[in-house]
Amino acid sequence: MASAGIGVVSSAGIGAVSSAGIGAVSSAGMGAVASAKIGAVGLAGTGVVSLPEILRAGVQVPVSARKIVCVGGHPDDPESGCGGTLAKLVALGHEVTIIYLTTGEAGINGVSHDEAARIRKQEAINACRVLNCKPVFAGQIDGESIVSNATLEQLQGLIGAEKPDVVFCHWPIDSHKDHQCASLLTIQTFRGLHRRADDGISSNRLR
Ligand SMILES: [Zn+2]
What we know:
The protein contains four helices and six strands; from the N terminus they run βββαβαβαβα. By secondary structure, it is of the alpha/beta class. The chain has a domain at about 65-200: 3-Layer(aba) Sandwich (Rossmann fold), CATH 3.40.50.
């Protein structure tokens, strides 16, 4: 992980996209929140167009428990990118699931992919235990992540099963390919879920 700005990525697929004027393109920050309830779309490191109400600082309005999903490319990305925010949301009574696109197979020098995956999966499980989040592993391979209709449908199944109100993911033009894949698949998934909800279109093929 490099920096870790938090920004809104997407919601219902309506409004304009607003990029963060200040956030660096190469930032690996877990930038992203998508709200099912808010109309604008923002891509942000710091310049957020709209925030779900539960993430607005200082807002004292009582909010019912929401379902939150965070998608990261590797074990450690969600925790280092927005772990504090996730912990705070859990403490406020919201339910958080973390989906790891890969299991970090390529993340430990001198260690086989299988062994690295075993170690990093356990680390992610331990981290989720600390954060009181539910871990889910999508099963893609570190360094070999793929954006395709098949992987989109797979991630859409995992995210859709959680019925999220808010989704966090990477900045889509992050410098790491796995982070980019996680972000693009998540954004497409979220758009697909809204399309299904809005107009009955069931296909989520890339378009
Ligand atoms: Zn990563």
